[in-house]
Design goal:
45% of the residues lie in helices and 23% in strands. The chain contains 4 helices and 3 strands.
């Protein structure tokens, strides 16, 4: 069964990230916050595509739903101050 921790680890090993938080306890539906410098200059769709690419076949076979909030380090820092 897929776990939040296994998704987190897969993202962290597949792309540079400053922060990855994944929650979900039913083994099928997950929510993630991902902060990566790779997201700079990309729109939200492009950012999500990077994460999907990092997860590869897991998105097609193991993960039923992944809701993502993707941020650059600068966006994360600004949101943390609010």
């Amino acid at each position: 069964m897929v776990t939040s921790e296994s998704i987190k680890n897969h993202i962290e090993t597949s792309m540079p990230c400053d922060l990855v938080r994944v929650e979900g306890d039913d083994g099928r539906h997950f929510e993630a916050i991902i902060v990566s410098p790779e997201f700079r200059g990309k729109n939200m769709v492009q950012q999500h595509q990077l994460v999907y690419r990092a997860l590869g076949d897991r998105m097609k076979q193991e993960i039923h739903a992944l809701s993502m909030k993707t941020l650059t380090p600068e966006q994360w820092a600004a949101s943390s101050r609010s």
